[in-house]
Amino acid sequence: EDEIEHYYRLRDVLRVLHGKGDITEAQYQKALSAAHNSTGIDQAHPALKPASSVLFELSTLQTLSVSDLLQPVLKTFKVHIAPSARKEVRDSLSAIDAQEQVRKWHEDLWNIVRRDERFSQVAHVSSAARRLEDGGITNSDVPIVACSLAIQENVPLLADDRACQMVVLNYRKGARKAF
Description:
Helix content: 40-55%
Oligomer: single chain
């Protein structure tokens, strides 16, 4: 008869961390509330010990990280993950790197625009713009303020967001087109 695959559970890992004093009683009790499965310890599978090699599911490591328990786990166990989890982590890190690169390009672009004398900064007189200066509205309101400013100054609106362009084009009804 085939042996059923055995799994240690989050509560088994927590027991070791708590027993070593690596986590407080409060951390232990809070983490146990997320440990819904019963222990994996039985006669054939003894309790985990510090320095044990343990294959973790990525979702378990993420749960531990959110609970500020990842560092104690990494210090206590020899942590392993499946190749598919390793690929997922690498892909996520690559996505973060790409986002950071785009953020840097965006910052560089704005630095160029701010230094270029061909661009002028114009104060917007709407109440929405005043609220933005006072911190009363969020960045999500900026596209609407940009549309209002283009209308106020009667200038074309150059924007990535086509919704902003649509607002200006619909307001002007063909007088001056946005790019």
